[in-house]
Amino acid sequence: MSQIELRPGLADVPVAESAVSYIDGKNARLEYRGIAVETLATESCFEETSYLLLKGDLPTQKQLADFDDQLRHHRRIKFRLVDLLKSLPETGHPMYALQAAVAAMGMFYPARDVTNAQSNWESVIRLIAKLPTVVAAFHRIRHGDEPIKPRDDLDHAGNFFWMLFEKEPSPAVRKVIDACLILHAEHTMNASTFSGRVTGSTLANPYTVISAAIGTLTGPLHGGANEEVLDMLGEIQTIGNVRAWCDDAITNKKKIMGFGHRVYKVKDPRATVLQTLAECVFADAGRPASYDLAVEMEKVLAEKLGSKGICPNVDFYSGIVYKALGIPMDLFTPIFAIARVAGWLSHWLEQLQNNRIYRPEQVYVGKTSAVYVPLAKRP
Ligand code: ACO
């Protein structure tokens, strides 16, 4: 019988050396390649942040212009990929459509030789550039509309908004979407990143790597939580119900969506930035009741769960911001994926630099030396 100590959920077990991002969970600090995420959210743009994550350093002006240019020129998706999206059930979740489309991209763009740096970089560009197009195309198709072609005169955030609504975002809205993409771009060794690294460690092609990571992100304990937060706020309905709802959830040991984190034991710094962004959006669009509910919930839960280190995570305010921008709820997690693909790919490239296939141990708790009884002798 195995004597290995099991750490459920691999808590505190390092699985790789990584230089992509860093979290100090006690001091609410998140850095991408050493730069605070708050600084990036206000000073940078998604394209520059992606370059930083992928390459390790901020780009020069020329490097950023070239990178941006490559992204803009790879936004279109093949008509057969659009046909594939058209063949999917329109009631299906867009995350599943995204996962299917990304897996299929591996057939349109064979990239089996992951030792080829040039081909890997082309895959990186294609994936970052095309994910927004896939998400927007599926959204249009499921409503019976034709997909809107990407525009190469708009930046990443602005073009995504355009492809969803066929209208350009105001500069304030564009900045909010861009900042949301930056905030979601990377987050150390989370479940989807680990999943991508495990798949990458088999030397699978990058489209398979990213589709595995997308699948992992769909779960409500991970990226799916931002949708559930809005369901929860919908259930609570009024500020007067908040305290009783929280008491009931705590008594019945119900997980409160948008709260808690494996690493942060204080408020997630991304939630703090998102809250500031939310205030900016609401200055224009009006303050939704769900935001007031969320603020009250944060206050009540700080009294009740704060001492246990259960505080708001990034998902608590992101859905409220997206909803205020008119984005449908089931696109919240796909937007997370559009951003996180930059982090997943940075980890994939890092994994390949010093690869060893992941093959962990298990603690066997089953029978041994069991007797095989022939079927004829069994009742
Ligand atoms: N509501 C109520 N209690 C909670 C919550 C919560 N949201 N999160 C943790 N706890 C409690 C647990 O019940 C447990 O209590 P116990 O020790 O008395 O049994 C303790 O805190 C530890 O919780 P775990 O679930 O073991 O913590 P873990 O690190 O495994 O899980 C997770 C982290 C999945 C994020 C968890 O906090 C959770 O389920 N949160 C709600 C879902 C969510 O918001 N997910 C998004 C995370 S951020 C992201 O992926 C982008």
What is the structural class? mainly alpha
CATH class of the largest domain: Mainly Alpha
Give start-end ranges of low-pLDDT stretches: none
Described by strand count, sense and barrel closure, the largest sheet is: 3 strands, antiparallel
CATH superfamily of the largest domain: Citrate Synthase, domain 1
Order of helices and strands: EEEHHHHHHHHHHHHHHHH
> How do the strands of the widest beta sheet line up side by side?
1-2-3
Q: Taking all residues together, what is the mean pLDDT? A: 95
Protein model, in words:
This protein is mostly helical. It has two domains: 21-220 and 329-353, Citrate Synthase, domain 1, CATH 1.10.580; 225-324, Cytochrome p450-Terp, domain 2 (Orthogonal Bundle), CATH 1.10.230.10. 56% of the residues lie in helices and 3% in strands. It contains 16 helices and three strands. Strands 1-2-3 form a three-stranded antiparallel beta sheet. The relative contact order is 0.15. Bound molecules: acetyl coenzyme *A. Acetyl coenzyme *A is lined by residues 9, 221-223, 225, 255-262, 308, 310, 313-315.
Question: Secondary-structure blueprint of this entry?
Answer:
Layout: E1 21-24, E2 29-32, E3 35-36, H1 37-43, H2 46-55, H3 61-72, H4 79-86, H5 94-108, H6 117-142, H7 156-165, H8 171-183, H9 191-201, H10 206-217, H11 225-236, H12 242-251, H13 269-285, H14 289-305, H15 315-324, H16 332-353
Antiparallel strand pairs: 1-2, 2-3
Bound molecules: acetyl coenzyme *A.
